[in-house]
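Standup notes, structure subgroup. Blocker cleared on the calcium ion input:
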Amino acid sequence: MPFKERHMENAHIADLFDQMADLLELKAEDPFRIRSYRNTARTLRDLSERVADWVEAGKSLADLPNIGKSSEDKIREILKTGTCARLEELQKEVPPGLPDLLKVPSVGPRTASELYKKLGIHTLAALKAACEKHELQTLAHMGAKTEAKILKGIVTLESSEGRILLKEATDYVESIGRLIKTIPAITKWEAAGSYRRGRETVGDLDILLHAGDRKAAIGALQQYEEISETISQGVEWLNVRLQNGLRVDFRFFEPAAFGAALMYFTGSKAHNIALRKRAQDNGWKLNEYGLFKGKKRIAGSTEADLYQHLNLAWVPPELREDAGEIAAAEKEALPQLIELKQIKGDLHCHTTATDGQNTIEEMARAALTRGYEYLAITDHSQSTRVAGGLDETRLKKHAENIRKIGGRMKNIELLAGVEVDILKNGELDLDEKLLADLDWVVASIHSHFQLSREAMTDRLVKAVESGVIHCLGHPTTRLIGQRDPIQFDFDRVLEACRKHDVLMEINSAPERMDLPDVLCKRALEAGVQFAISTDAHNTNDLDFIRYGIIVARRGWLTKKDVLNTLNVSALRKRLRKALKAQPL
Ligand code: DGT
Ligand code: CA
Ligand code: CA
Ligand code: ZN
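Run returned:
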């Protein structure tokens, strides 16, 4: 495949930097260099614009956080050649497969090197087999417990293997969309499947197209630079694999069937089966080409038409999981799902005071350009040391600063807040009087993820009962594909939240999406309210809000369920009330 720099995706470049960092780690090289590659990878992944476009436009990369001269040179090299000399060099110095071991949560570079040197293990399959045969225990510092943990890590990894985060899938759909725009033969297209339903991870992309000249369209699609191989190709389809392993299935349909194809390939499978049964109950047949009465197609060109013929309201894709949406569509009782444009401000972000990359003022200006009326600045508290968390003296000063800058700025209000750690015993990491003086307090767990279910529940309930917090931050603490959620009695925590008027956060960071959608729905049914926040660590991250909105929609939330749809004066009023809320 000829290589064209223009079309290379940020995620792809980021993967190469992560690979270099992994290889350096395995060779136990300079930690500073390793961190710099990791930061570059993260910055690239978080960007909402393509760095390839920047370079093409002749823009400098110096304004990007965390990207130094040497990384910039490598990015340019990668964009020009598709790879970089340093990476190829490193790959020759480390056994193939060994970097894969680092994907297992509890295996670090030192363990991986030891596994290779002492047991000759350099693939995941070999590591799994060795765990099952209890061979790891023969190593000096390795006990049965560690071995079991590694095995569990491999199993978690296998279950997420091959799926990518929604954010990454979105970047690829958008880049395919840009390509399609340049192909005159294609007159209509949609991305269906789990991507359209907004699932937090995506297994493969299902792209539907209409083209006058299919052959020309397929030929042009094959020029997509991210393709690594063509899996199969026919008159009506093209299946390919991308460089990052993602499979993309392109399928062609006529306009008369396009709505039926969109409905079928959007799924979910369970939703489809329920619809098909409904059609059958009427003596009709429903498939990806239309709704048929005998041989006659009675609907098929649009989804709206199909749902109408089935006597249902049109169901938003995020709800198509056969979780009650069909009954609701029958009764015209579907929720009016929340939309991005209803969000009036962001309630969780970090600044240079702790581990953020931009100042208070820069974050505030970025919020303003997104049309927000307010922004809560919520830096870390003291026990999150790696992030340079704030002690009481520093937080007081920081809050004054936030208020001063907020007072100076027009058209945006800043809320002086904090993301306070919930300590192991459920106490908060800062003095409660100080917390009560702040405008907005998010409380989160950042340590001791392994407590018993009972102790974890008590810990969360105690924080909620403190009376000084507004919101539980990233409530399950999971990192998709990397860290399992903490275990606790969700209903008990919901009950406490409802009683003390504490909100659940929907953290929009792509690797968190926490609360997860299914739990959102449960929290909603328990009468708890939500804040949709980004947890931004730089100005670009504020764009993650779109992923939080998708989670909320999958959780059946409407405008009134989400605090930060309020305008600034209503929010102020609501917060004063919340702080006064007393235990019943
Ligand atoms: P993924 O790719 O694993 O993230 O999830 P989906 O939902 O995109 O699943 P995929 O790509 O296997 O198939 C796309 C859609 O096609 C799926 O959501 C529903 C429809 N579909 C696939 N297989 C079947 C089937 O056996 N029966 C029915 N009724 N629909 C199917
Ligand atoms: Ca799919
Ligand atoms: Ca598929
Ligand atoms: Zn946090």
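Discussed briefly. The longest strand covers residues 413-421.
Next: hand off to the docking folks.
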